[in-house]
Amino acid sequence: MYYIDIIRQVMQEQGLSQEAFAAILGVNQTTVSQWLRGNKKPGYDSILLLYQKFDIEPNLLFGIDK
User: Fold this and answer.
1) What is the mean pLDDT of residues 44-65?
2) Which residues contact 66 (CB under 8 A, 6 or more apart)?
């Protein structure tokens, strides 16, 4: 499971819209939309917040096995 699937899953489990998810991470809704379409990958700051806010390991986001 890569970042697109993980982000979708977190949003669904938490009942978050793209706007609400974006607000938590301090990005705009367009950025989240681009992530979900695979047009853009989360940057360092967003990856760090995904870990802090949702306990998502950075390696998991990009399909890296330990």
Assistant:
1) 89
2) 59
